[in-house]
């Protein structure tokens, strides 16, 4: 009884306050309309920001709220039209009531209370309407749009779960209006020879990369995942010659070699497949599957390699990795022989090479890891393999070598600085690009290992 009496007295006092202060009622009406605008704006942002995959999983588990929300996500045209109706009505009504309720009061206050007569009442009325519109626009943008959307973006699921219950009801009420608006829009688009369905939004590569960058900044995607995604996009821009094992690094078998020599090559190489040539390495006649060889050797004691060769899959240097990957999958080829424009052997590409261009280096017990290719011995002393790529050397040593150089490895850097190919077994010292290089081993006209120091002052060219 006491509570009822208190509420009754409050209602009477509130009504009396409105009657005594005629401006309080219009202010409350404006706050109400801005709140309605905020409701629809926050609902729109909340639904758009929902994680559709998570929502579908919840819907599949029988969550009624998720089922309701996923319907809105799957039908954005009707949902957005309903939201727009609510926002537009709230905005129009707010502007109309504000101009009607406040402009005359401002003019009367200026003319009657302040005796301001420099401007005619009609002109003052126009100016007051403009000022009211500007002030109303500010409060509507801040409290009816920006703040609600920011809050909804951070609490998408909670706000969507709460607000969409009323939104579904409001959608049913405004269904005829939504139908009329959709029909009018589609009719105008047809007249303009535009498609009336715009559901298929093309997402560009740049947009995906931007989303990946944002995901990394927020911690949703780690650096390795980001690198893999970026490598996938670059997959179609990398050529076979960029990832192949060069001909000078290949382990190959001459079809004319005696069985003992061929078997020794297999044992030393530790590869599952080996290219086979006839007299000249440019004349590749097939690929030897080591498993086939060993099975036949155990059964028969002697193997005619030519009889168990598998056809070689030849590709040009300029084929892109994306196409090469698909072709190797289609042909069940684990290894591709890369040839140049003259038909000479350039190298080979394996399925592992293609995968490594996406996920990074894959090492087994026989591979030399990056740490082994570059070993730090002292504060300013490294042991570097001649086959180590320049990019890796720049990264590990913290140096910068010009991009226009014509070499790709440590061995190439040494030979470029010497302008000659030293004899096998030579030991020499070279200074180039801010580095002091002591070559320790040269075999088959190739730099095997070198000790490297950084000179004071950094890279200075050749």
- How far apart the termini lie comes to 98 Å
Mean pLDDT across the residues is 80
Strand arrangement, major sheet:
8-9-12-11-10
Rounded to an integer, what's the Rg over CA atoms? Answer: 38 Å
- Name the overall outline: elongated
DSSP strand tally: 12
Our count of helices gives: 19
Largest sheet geometry: 5 strands, antiparallel
Poorly predicted sequence stretches spanning 5 or more consecutive residues? 1-6, 195-199, 458-462
The level of helicity is: 55-70%
Per DSSP, what share of the residues sits in E-state strands of 2 or more residues? 5-15%
Give me the secondary-structure category.
alpha+beta
Number of domains: 4
Quickly list its features.
462 residues, 4 domains, elongated, five-stranded antiparallel beta sheet, single chain, four-stranded mixed beta sheet, 19 helices, disordered C terminus, 12 strands, CBS-domain
How would you describe what is shown here?
There is one protein chain. The protein has 462 residues and is α+β, with helices and mostly antiparallel strands. The chain has 4 domains: 2-191, no CATH class; 207-235, no CATH class; 238-357, CBS-domain, CATH 3.10.580; 370-454, Uridine Diphospho-n-acetylenolpyruvylglucosamine Reductase, domain 3 (2-Layer Sandwich). The protein has helices at residues 2-20, 24-48, 52-60, 64-74, 76-113, 121-154, 156-173, 175-191, 205-217, 223-234, 240-243, 259-269, 290-300, 305-308, 321-330, 351-359, 370-373, 390-397, 410-418; strands at 245-246, 253-254, 273-278, 280-289, 314-316, 335-339, 345-350, 374-378, 381-385, 428-432, 435-443, 446-454. Strands 8-9-12-11-10 form a 5-stranded antiparallel β-sheet. It has a 4-stranded mixed β-sheet with strand order 1-7-6-5. Helix 15 (321-330) links the parallel strand 5 and strand 6. Helix 2 runs antiparallel to helix 5 (76-113) and helix 2 crosses helix 7. Mean pLDDT is 80; it is low at 1-6, 195-199 and 458-462.
